[in-house]
Amino acid sequence: MVCSTGSAIMSSSETSPRHDRLDQFARRYYAPLVSFFRRRTRLSADVDDLVQQAFLRLSQHPHVDAIKNPDAYIFQTAANTLTDHVRRNGVRRRIFEEAGTEDTVEWSSEVSPERVLQGSQSLVQLVAALRTLPERTRDIFMLRCFEGLRHAEIARLQGISVRASEGHLAKALARISHFLEQDSEEPPQ
Q: What is the 3-state secondary structure (H, E, C) of the chain?
């Protein structure tokens, strides 16, 4: 993990060459990445999150110590991170536009206590259903349904085929639907 000063935080256990390489990247590229994202984003509050996301992606590279051209690789990773960030924000913006505008959405007392309770119970049911899924299937569901990523992007991130990504999503939807249907059939307590 990279803290705001750009130095890596290591566990107390002995560091490996991989961790050393990631630490070198963090020290070398933290400030350039901050500059990269500042020039390309409107909200300065997003910059630290984007830098963290870029380093997270770098840390997930299976052979980080074998990267031949780190400048190109890291800034391509940063560009991909920014593209995904813009895409996610677009999905959120569309949701608000479909509901009206963010300024006109009513969040106040016009929602009845019964509706709040029902929504809260539905959320608890969804979380319980998600917990029954295998980790990869749950991750793919979250990336598709909550982050709005396409199957090709999910497949690339997960290191699987597009068809496998689609299969995981279908499995997730079927299992969640089945779980929620079973839960709604139980008598109220």
A: CECCCCCECCCCCCCCHHHHHHHHHHHHHHHHHHHHHHHHCCCCHHHHHHHHHHHHHHHCCCCHHHCCCHHHHHHHHHHHHHHHHHHHHHHHHHHHHHCCCCCCCCCCCCCCHHHHHHHHHHHHHHHHHHHCCCHHHHHHHHHHHCCCCCHHHHHHHHCCCHHHHHHHHHHHHHHHHHHHHHHHHCCCC
Whether pTM > 0.70 for this model: the answer is no
- Asked whether residue 105 is domain-assigned, the answer is no
Structural domain for 54, as ranges: 17-98
The pLDDT tens digits for 18-33 are 888 888 888 988 999 8
Point out the residues of the chain with pLDDT beneath 50.
1-13, 102, 104-109, 188-189
Per the structure, the count of domains in the chain is 2
As given in the structure block, the two tokens for residue 75 are 């800034």
> Rounded distance, CA 161 to CA 137, Å?
13
117 and 179 together in one domain: yes
